[in-house]
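ingest -> validate -> predict -> emit
validate: passed (alphabet ok, no gaps, 277 aa)
predict: started
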Amino acid sequence: MLPIKIAGNMSNTSINLGDLDNGLTYFWSIVAWDNHGLSSEGPVWKFTTITVNNPPNKPRKPVGEMNGIKGINYLYTTNTTDPDEDQIYYIFDWGDGNFSMWLGPYNSGETIEVTNIWNKAGIYEVRARAKDTNNRMSDWSEPLVVTINTNLPPNTPVIDGPRFGRTGKSMTFKYVSTDPEDNDVYYFINWGDGTNDDWYGPYNSGEEVSINHTYSEGGKLYMNVKAKDQFNKEGQTVHYVILILKNRAISNPLIQRIFYRMFDNFPRLQLIFNRFL
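emit:
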């Protein structure tokens, strides 16, 4: 292949070759003329351009939960690009002296997802750093400030409902509990008659919840109720005493109807009755 002439009739001793391709070998020589038209060609020289590797750009500020509870797993994301379109690895600084492993490789511009658990309450700065496949590192990202708190259980539920009832008749009870961190609340109710349902919920913290139950057996029964938050932190159990009369406890049907109607129509009787339970 014949060499390509890139310049001629030059009187100066330097030349700007412009942009060259990376990683290629170039051959060159010089032909000189004097004012009598005589020329002389110099030897052929060569040089190889070095591939320039640029580091990845600084990663985007991590995105994720900014207020959390210790012991809970939280998800964080970030991404960046590489000027040379190299694949990228990421490392996270969790702000508590712990770092993730180098994670990857990911394509330039691809978003990475990673999780972390803090086991102590505190305020932490989460940062991310990137490197390419040639180990050129970026600067650290801007920090995301994360506040981790100790999770407290919901307060003991308050129960409002009848203290007296009879078998076969649906009874309505109201429950309310507040959570110190305003987390959602679930209720577990042991009805005292050998039955209990799965956790009711979720409900907003402080929301009054009405739940119905029909007793099939009579006697002095003990309802046990407790609350938990959305992170399964359980509070204390409260006990609630109920007296359930069987429909056949009073043999005379007329007296039975009068007795039941008195309690149904005169709530004050129930208040008096409640004092003895």
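Helices lie at 253-265, 267-274.
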